[in-house]
Write a structure and sequence with these properties.
By secondary structure, the chain is of the alpha/beta class. The chain has three domains: 47 residues; 49 residues; 201 residues, Nucleotidyltransferase, domain 5 (2-Layer Sandwich), CATH 3.30.420.10. α1 runs antiparallel to α2 and α4 crosses α5.
């Protein structure tokens, strides 16, 4: 690297009468082109012209535009749920921006200090085999999860998710994880999406009598409709991992909302969330598309139509307690069944 002293000697000595520029350059070990460049900068800018300059190009065709980076930052701050690089790319495309790669979006977030390193979230080396049913309505996953209202009162959310499309089939609020809650969520889904070919669940007493020596009302209802009931192996929650993961997403969103004081208010929040989740939020597992609409199943369940067997009627209202059945024929227990929760100890169904 040529020092400032060498540049100054070149400029001052080169102006002296009788000094040979070629000999001066050989003595200072610089090229003649460098000498004339320093001389020109000195004449135009003075000492500032001899300060080392960056060799980086003045323009770069790959540099992200400031307006685009500002939009990425805005989406990061304002998106109500997932706001990672893939989700931001999805929303940029929807609003007409020229979408950079997800890696470029991530680098922009890092530059702006909006990414906190979380090494604990890196994927483990244990190989998992992903599975999904090949068509919508091929199988629904059903499970309940606990939520506390503003006054501390317990509420339970019975969720139903389509295994293939990730559509939220239903999300219903009840006072406990009962058979009535399972019927309500199932009937809500059938009314809108049709009858599935299979139902996947854990071994909670609201779903099965597997460990009580008999068949539960929920199982009887599914059998009368020609729907296969797939139960998980004990201590294997990965079978219904999609709905277990959905519980996390749902609760993350609920925590960002005003705390519901009643089950009715919580149901209104769930209805808003389901609409957003199904139609506005990109689903990474579905190649960034919305969850979409499940198509009618191609199974013997189709021939049953959407009729309901005895005991399979919708409960009275979203805020109704788990013990309040919509029909006299429904004799589902009103006592919450802890085995139906989405706690870490709860198990999920077999694929």
């Amino acid at each position: 690297m040529i020092t400032m002293e060498t540049k100054l000697l070149a400029v001052f000595e080169g102006d002296r009468p009788g000094v040979s520029v070629a000999e001066l350059c050989r003595e200072l070990e610089i090229s003649r082109d460098s000498y004339y460049r320093y001389k020109k900068r000195w004449d135009e800018e003075g000492p500032a012209g001899l300060v080392p300059r960056s060799r980086a190009p003045k323009t770069s065709p790959h540099l992200m535009a400031a307006e685009l980076e500002d939009e990425i930052v805005r989406l990061r701050k304002e998106l109500p749920l997932d706001n990672g690089a893939q989700t931001i790319a999805y929303h940029l495309e929807r609003t007409g921006w020229s979408v950079p790669s997800t890696r470029s979006i991530h680098r922009a977030l890092v530059r702006r200090g909006l990414v906190v390193p979380e090494p604990k979230k890196r994927p483990k080396s244990v190989p998992w085999r992903r599975f999904e049913w090949p068509a919508p309505n091929g199988a629904w996953q059903i499970d309940a999860t606990h939520w506390a209202l503003a006054d501390g009162e317990s509420a339970w959310i019975m969720d139903v998710l389509d295994d293939h499309s990730r559509v939220v089939i239903a999300a219903r609020v009840h006072s406990g994880p009962s058979t009535v809650a399972a019927f309500d969520a199932f009937n809500t889904g059938v009314d809108r999406w049709g009858v599935p070919a299979r139902i996947m669940s854990d071994n909670g007493t609201c779903f099965t009598g597997r460990f009580s020596g008999g068949e539960s009302e929920f199982e009887q209802a599914l059998r009368s409709l020609g729907i296969r009931h797939l139960l998980s192996s004990p201590a294997h929650p990965q079978t219904c991992g999609k709905i277990e993961r959905f519980h996390q997403t749902l609760k993350k969103w609920l925590r960002s909302q005003p705390h519901a004081g009643t089950r009715r208010e919580l149901q209104d929040q769930l209805d808003t969330f389901v609409e957003f989740y199904n139609h506005d939020r990109p689903h990474r597992a579905r190649l960034q598309r919305n969850a979409g609409t499940p198509s009618p199943p191609t199974s013997r369940a189709t021939r049953s139509g959407s009729r309901r067997p005895p005991g399979c009627a919708r409960s009275a209202s979203p805020g109704a307690s788990a013990g309040a059945s919509a029909t006299a024929s429904a004799s589902a227990p009103s006592t919450p069944a802890p085995a139906c929760s989405s706690s870490p100890e709860a198990t999920t169904s077999r694929s």
